[in-house]
Structure formats: structure tokens, C-alpha cells
Amino acid sequence: MHKTIQNHIPSQAIPRVLELLEHDNLVVLIKKERKTRHGDYRKLPNGKHQITINNNLNIYRFLITLVHEIAHFEAYNSFGRFIKPHGLEWKRTFQHLMLPFINPEVFPLDLLPLLARHFKNPKASSDTDSDLAYALKQFDVNNDKTYIFEVPFGTVFKFRNKKVFRKVNKRVKRFECVEISTGKVYLFSPNAEIDIIEE
After folding, report:
1. 41: region left, alpha or beta (phi > 0 left; psi from -120 to 50 alpha)
2. Mind listing the pLDDT tens digit for each residue in 72-127?
3. Following DSSP, what letter does each residue of the chain receive, concatenated?
4. Exposed e or buried b for every residue in 18-57, given b needs 16+ CB within 10 A?
5. Is beta strand 26-31 parallel, antiparallel or unpaired with respect to 185-188?
6. Fewer CB atoms inside 10 Å of the end CB: C or N, the chain?
7. Architecture of the domain defined by 146-196
8. CA 33 to CA 45: how far, in whole Å?
9. Are 10 and 60 in contact (CB under 8 A)?
């Protein structure tokens, strides 16, 4: 298991990650891409703890996601099962576990200020921090993506190869888009990946 994980994270992070994973009752599985999450944590009925991480993440997002899920495990062990999933106990644990990795030996220099800002108050998903999410996506293998913030209002696009929308307005941080078939308005994060439809 650990050999496989080492292929998915920055080499300088390996020793510290292996230390964090030194638990007999913790299992890490690498899964095929899931659109709704990068990873997850849960306690299994047999008493063991399981973390799953998507296999398509670049090494920096994989590391952040792995430490995010280890923080759930550590917070559970330290504070019990009645804490909020992304409450104060988890936030403090995540900050504490992540701090040793936020340095130029592990992350590129241009990511460090974004990570420092994000980890002052980490959210349930790094995707809600659009600046950090966009910066992390620049390290993806398939980088010829179009993001919703890049296209003009009026653009018609497909999202996740399913529904078709038109970009119509901007709120404070998100974009209003109308689903063509129903007329319903949806809010999109600025870094949502879209496929433009030529009209």
C-alpha cells in the first residue's frame, strides 16, 4: 500500500507521510476518479479505519487530500465520534498535520502563499477556495481545460458531459448559469471545468 502512495505524492513528503500512516488499524485505498469527491474517511464496522483517495489527482492535490483524510482519523481518535466532520477539532488537527509540508521542498513556490492563506481556516474542500483550486489544477496532467470564469457571459456550455447551461451573471464569487432545458438557475464555482458548445 505505502509503495503505491509514494508514487502519488512529492518525494520530499514521503518520510513524514509514512510516519502519519503508521497505524495498524488504518487502511488507505486508491480509487478511480469520483466526480463528487477527491477522497473520504470512514470507520468500518470491524473497527478499522479506511481512507480512499482518487487516483487521478496530481501529487500536490493528492498530498493535501491524504492529509485532510488523515486529519479526520486523528481527530476521531483524539476527540471521539461526536465531533462535527469539519468542525474546530478537525480544522486544528488538519492545520497541525499540514504545517510541516508547507515549505518549498514539498510545494512549488507559487503555491505556498495560497496554501498559507487557506490553512489559516481550512474548509471542508479545497475546491471552495477558488484561487488555490485553480492554482492546483495547473499541475494536472490534462491541462487543456476551460474554466467558467474564462468565458464571456452568454456562453453555452456542457457540464460534466451532461446538462447544457448558459452563463448569465456573476454574484460575489460564483457565476449564475441557466440550464437550457429547464430554465433553472444554478451557481457555479469560478474554476468549474466546462465544455463550450458552439452555437
Report:
1. beta
2. 999 999 999 899 999 999 999 999 999 999 999 999 999 999 999 999 999 888 88
3. -HHHHHTTS-GGGHHHHHHHT--TTEEEEEE--BTTBSEEEEE-TTS-EEEEEETTS-HHHHHHHHHHHHHHHHHHHHH-TTS-TTSHHHHHHHHHHHGGG-STTTS-GGGHHHHHHHTTS--S-GGGSHHHHHHHHTTSS----EEGGGSPTT-EEEETTTEEEEEEEE-SSSEEEEETTT--EEEE-TT-EEEE---
4. eebbeeeebebebeeeeeeebbbbeeeeeeebbbbbbebb
5. unpaired
6. C
7. Roll (2.30)
8. 25
9. yes
Cell of 124: 471542508
Return the C-alpha cell found at 93: 488537527
The set of cell numbers assigned to 70 is 488523515
Asked whether the beta carbons of 38 and 53 are under 8 A apart, the reply is yes
Q: Are the CB atoms for 134 and 110 separated by under 8 Å?
A: no
Task: Specify the residue for cell string 474554476.
Answer: 191
Domain map (residue ranges) of the chain: 2-137, 146-196
Q: What is the pLDDT of residue 2?
A: 66
